[in-house]
Amino acid sequence: MRRLFVTVAVVTTAMFAYAPFMILNAPYESTMGLVQKIFYFHASLGMAMFAAAFASGIGSALFLFTRKPAADRLAVAGAELTSIIGLLVLVTGPLWARKAWGVWWQWDARLTSTLVMWLIFNAYLLLRRYGGPGSDRLAAAVALFGMANVPFVYWSVNVWRTLHPKTSVIPSLQPGMRGPFWFCVVAFLLLFMLLLSLRMELEKRRQELDELYLAAEE
Amino acid sequence: MKRYVSVALFVLTIGAPALAQSPTPAQPPPSAPSKPAAQDEFVPVDKPMNAQDTIPAPRLVAIAYGFIWVVLLGYVWSVRSRLATVEREMQTVSKRVGSGGR
Known about the structure:
The complex is a heterodimer.
Chain A: H1 2-25, E1 28-29, H2 39-66, H3 69-100, H4 109-130, H5 135-159, H6 175-217
Helix pairs in contact in A: 1-6, 2-3, 2-5, 2-6, 3-4, 3-6, 4-5
Chain B: H1 2-20, E1 44-45, H2 57-99
């Protein structure tokens, strides 16, 4: 398992070292110019954020039905990564928007629903930290709501009128843009898996520490 | 006669507000600034087109990529640090359990 982790870490590092060259060589977009290059990391981070939200939601559902500690570890790790990656999405988006739209923020469907999803997973983390006994089950229900938000965030650009590019930009990417984009997506999904396993390991150790404390008390 | 005048006044009293609320002919909407439509696809070109913009794009791109790396590396450092703290604490508690005392 450790060998697999190291191998994936090496591959991911190599991919991130090569990614800037691919992005620099990608063609400029006709209306947005250079600033559109934020897209390669921004959209990839968005996909990783969705993966993290699904990990937390699935872990929470399993925890609610089975009460297995491993499911809870997946839920906590996924929620923390949704919060971290969501922050990156919510910061890089406005940096792109300021140049492309002339404003930092628009209260449109995509941006607002992403912010709401991010707040839900932050609420999950706050519940876990300060909720006291029994907060794990309550937080699991919150994570399920967070995961249910993902399809709304994804489809919002196609259903409501918004300044944000539609989902059709991804399948319609020109070959010069398609390669760097999917390269970045794979790199970020690999990074997400690495961070998820690292964070789950931390949670496992914490649970072992709690058991040790209980043993020390007896 | 007085009755006819009363009926006419009644009709006018009731009818006037109704007439006042009748729909006015459709007018073209005021020329408010309309939002540009969302993009369906990206169109590649060889050179950047918006060189006249006030905020330089390279700065925004550099901030975006820099912020991503600072946060991600900071997060990895944070997880490693928390893991090391838990490991240290585990060793301390293990020794306490092993020695059988509190």
